[in-house]
Amino acid sequence: MTKKEIGRRDFLKKAGAAGVALGSAGIAGGYITPRKVAAQKRAIPKGPIRMAAVSFLTGAAASPFGIPGMNTYQMMAEQYNKQGGILGRKIELLSYDEAGGVDAQVKLSRKLILDDQVDVTLGYISSANCKAVLPLSDELGGLIMAYDCGTHELMEGTTSPYKTPKYSLGFRTKAHLGIDNIGLALYIKKYFPDIKTMGGINQDYAWGRESWLIFETAMKKLMPHVKVVGTWWPPLGTTDFTAHISALMGAKPDIVHSSLWGGDAVTFSKQAQGMGLIERSRMAWSRGEPYPQEVGKEYPEEQIICCAGTHYFLYPPHDKWPLNKYFVEEYRKRYGKYPTYPCYHAYQAIAVYKQAVEKAGALVGGWPTIEEISKAVVGLSIQTPSGHLMIREDHNGIEDVLVGVSKMTPDFPFPILDPQRMEVYPAHMVNAPVGIRTVDWINSWQS
Amino acid sequence: MWPIYILNGLYFAAFIFLISLGLNIILGVMGLLNLAHGSLYAIGAFMAAWTITRLAEGASIFILLPALLTGTALAALFGLFMEYFLIRPMYKRALEYQLLITFGALMLFEDVIKMIWGGEAIYASTPFVLLGRVNILGNPYPAYFLLVMLLALVVGVLIWLFMAKTRIGVMLRAISLDREMATAMGLKINRLGTFSFVLGAALAGFSGALVVPTTPALLGFGMEPLILAFIVVVMGGLGSLKGALIGSLVVGQTRSLGIAFFPEIELAVMFLIAAAILVAKPEGLFGR
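The joint structure predicted for all components is written out below.
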């Protein structure tokens, strides 16, 4: 037998040896593999992060929202840069005006994503602009974070349940107008259970109509005995509300719901004071937070005011939440005013981006792609000056909401929210579950 | 509430009357549709608001009310510059050029306002608050609104007297009736044109100044009144003082009663009335 036959014992020996060899190789390989990955660690790009911030810098929304929002972006970008930027990259903030209408904003967004190739766009106050621009995130492959627009329709589908997310690269880093109006209704039920009638004055476009829709739907569930005596829809930018005020006085509602903002809110409030409406009916402002400071000591007391979240310069209290103390003091030092809710919203947008990049960066070992950043945003829960913000799988932020009543105190030259009558409604009470439309959710409440 | 509805209509009419009066004078004398009229109104508003905020602390109403005239003066000054540098070179051009240049001025003035006063709203409600309220048949009503009505009436009468009784007024009317003949008669068209433009701008500034105690001065402030003033001018007849008055009253009362009784279609009703007037009398109620 010249040819050596391989017996069963030999085979087992060799197979065993091969197994040991392979096993060793495997161990060695296992030891080597991380080295290979480490060798492939992604580089952090050298240049700065090009961050586009889009906010109203002209027009009626500039002074109450757009400029405070942009101030905050600048302040936070500088703060982050002082701390070393994001993953070592400095932020280059590029400011753009949101004015000019939807077409202008769509063009600007295309330019920002395709020509300028910005890393992220943080922006938009107008719901119409958000609705027009957010679809471009997926269409053109750019990361967009809507920071202040309120429409609940932005991320919702047409029927419940709807598929989420609507856009894979588009987010809104705050809660929608549902929280304001549900919060108001809950507050009214608790503090003014005896009211019998209500009316509404809201601007005649999506914002006003949607705010009233949510408020009315919630009130019908929470206080079904309250009758609607009339609704008025002045156009945006109305400077004379006398006719609306007289009509409201004629209708005699116990509560008047309003989502008026900016100059409209102040004008209405002043004229309503002058004509005596404030003494006959109680106002419930879904976004009233900025105006006591804007108007000063003449701002009326006993107005129900919602804060678009828990965004308030005195809440959370500074001793319990130092981040709010820092934010309020820093903003006031720079701009001479207390921050209002758009400032808090701008903080949220830039902070969500920073934390998502850092989270994704830690996972991939370098600078993440926008898809990786986008995945990191989902489920992100961050501390903000207002408390906690969570971004859900529908790419929408959810927040608690603060409601209170204005009261003059010796401590400030304008009315503040009465500390004895502040209410915070937790996020689960004022935000519809993922995939369920807000109106359907409210209608499903047990009376 | 009826007396209040009527008063609201009169207040709104007073305010629109002052704006449309200026627009109408410029249109009548110069044949120029000034799209920047709303911006001149905004300049008047900002200037007056700024002055009031500087004086407001402890100042009496007798100081604050004349302070509103600073808005009138600055709007007149802007009008003078606008006419001299922008409008005058366009006299011989077609109407489209004039429209474009006034539209350009509208854009420019928005930025000028931003440069001078910044993007922030200016709140100047002290005169409104100081004047307080009066009682009208059991209903409280701000005395400031009554003052605006009175001032609009006084200005209207003064402008009418000026146009009817003074030499310059007669010359302005002559130009508005027949520009070529007036030129042939030796009237200094350019100088009178400048005068009417400045007068129109001052009226725009005056109405802007009158409105700031009731509403904050804001960027983008002049658009709504400009549109309403156009409706008044078209309804009342181009270049007619009487037309501006009646047009303002129709717009004011339709708006006030519309909001009280049929709020959902109030704006549509106003435009329908304007359309009906134009169908029946294409030249407007008192147009020629």
